[in-house]
Amino acid sequence: MRGLREELQGAACPLLHPPSMASPMRSLLADLDRYIQAFHLFLERSTEHQSTQEFVERRLPGMIASKMPPLQITKIIGNLECPKGKSPESDPSCPLVGEMDLQIFSKVRARYPGVTINNDVIEPSADQISKYKERVAQASNLENIKFTWHKETANEYESRMNAEKKTKKWDFIHMI
């Protein structure tokens, strides 16, 4: 059985790499449907979601306690929805858009009620940003949380910040 790494590198995964071995590897960002499929393959084959959940529940509260508000939080990539035919209720590897973020905000709020949280969301898919915005609009208890939306990859964001000679400090960064 091939491992996740080989599949994600395209050795045996047709959605990441064209069947012809002569074809050069393409960025997943060239085809956002493949980007979403690849992410879900990753979730199906990894314990990322469960590990992140455990981290948020067990370790994050102690880390938060060592910081002083206001907090600057960044979410980089991974605001993806379930593939067709699956739902978070039927498949634990299938997260809701922004689900982990809302759990993190809850932990921060428990330690620092009323603190201002600045949350930068970096995501290359406009559709995923839209879904995340819908989730935020439906959520309660998000007062004093400021969202800044960046439709770009983490590398594009970093390059842009460097080109603009902008510096930014974050207290917490999480990404998939």
Summarize the structure in short.
The protein is an alpha/beta fold and 176 residues long.
Structure description:
The chain is α/β, with parallel strands linked by helices and 176 residues long. Helix content is 41%, strand content 12%. Helix 3 packs parallel to helix 5. The longest helix has 14 residues. The chain is globular and about 50 Å long. The two termini are 24 Å apart. This is Histamine N-methyltransferase. InterPro entries: SAM-dependent_MTases_sf. It comes from Lonchura striata.
Which characteristics define this entry?
176 residues; 4-stranded parallel beta sheet; Rossmann fold; 41% helix; alpha/beta; single chain
Helical region count? 7
Biggest β-sheet, characterized? 4 strands, parallel
What is the total domain count? Answer: 1
Which radius of gyration do the C-alpha atoms yield?
Answer: 18 Å
Helical fraction: 40-55%
**Global mean pLDDT:** 73
The computed structural class is alpha/beta
Assigned CATH architecture: 3-Layer(aba) Sandwich
CATH superfamily: Vaccinia Virus protein VP39
Strand line-up across the major sheet: 3-2-1-4
CATH class: Alpha Beta
The fraction of residues assigned to DSSP E strands is 5-15%
Shape: globular
Give start-end ranges of low-pLDDT stretches.
4-19, 76-81
Count of distinct strands: 4
Spatial separation of the terminal alpha carbons: 24 Å
Protein name: Histamine N-methyltransferase
Organism: Lonchura striata
InterPro entries: SAM-dependent_MTases_sf (IPR029063)
